[in-house]
Amino acid sequence: MKKPVYITQMGVLERKGNTLFFENENGKKAIPVNSTSEVHCFKPVTLTSGAIKLLSEKNVPVHFYNKYGYYRGSYMPAEGQVSGSVVIRQAEHYLDSEKRLYIAGQFVKGIKASMLALLKSYRADASAIEEVPVEGESPAELMGVESTLWKEFYTIFGSLLKNFEFKERNRRPPKDEVNAMISYGNSVLYTVALSEIRKTYLHPAISFLHEPLERRYSLALDFADIFKPVTVFRVILRLVNRGKIKEEHFERDVGVMFNREGLRVFLPELNGELERKVLHPRLKRNVSIRYLIRLEGYSLVRHLFGDKTYTSLRAWW
């Protein structure tokens, strides 16, 4: 199974022979490119032309983040899974207001179900979320419903935290430790969703709930939102309430960010949650949560071709 590589120091990615190395003033380390799903750079990293060529050959994307954990961009190898017929169907469903509205509604229902799954696992009162109806006559109205769901979710989520205070969501930059964790987690999940979407023939820039815009892969936002409660927020609750993440794991300037030690605690825990296996009720076998994102893409492709009506994931774990 391929695994992500997280780089938390400044340095250079270079190629020597058929091996990828990360090198800086602290030394040189080989990266097993054949078993790497993607590379995440949380500090400035230079890619040599040789490294880019090797990464392209192995179809390994590289994602870059700023110091607050916000996604800045990616080096994406030439698309390995391309289908003009899928992109055409995807565009047709985006341009047809009724078809788009159905898919967008499914995404919001999936988000709501994931929120409920997490909160019920903590035996929290989730009635405020249960009472929010998922209905709207446009994607913009459904985005408003999603905003309402997140507002209620944040309130309940904050009440479950034991060692940090969380009053409201803020960003760019995050003003406190919990918001910093959410920003890092959301960004990593977005890039993982992007990597999985690239394996399904779907075009990551043609979305249905979020409005497609330049300079972002908005379908990855659609998919990632479904999985945020049961991955990013589950990891934050676990690390904070068990005392594994503390104030000493953060730095401050105009905002709050992880220091290197904080990243070394948070990132493996998040990756472990994404690689966690759950018994799939239909497939009758264990699959990783990360693979569930790809299955979501496959389900949407079948819907686009009229093979099976799309129903978004309803988290059960």
From TrEMBL:
Pfam families given in the database record: Cas_Cas1 (PF01867)
TM annotation in the entry: none
CDD domains xrefs: Cas1_I-B
Amino-acid positions noted as binding Mn(2+) in the UniProt annotation, renumbered to this chain: E146, H210, D225
Keyword Metal-binding: yes
Family: Belongs to the CRISPR-associated endonuclease Cas1 family.
Protein name: CRISPR-associated endonuclease Cas1
Organism, as annotated: Thermococcus peptonophilus
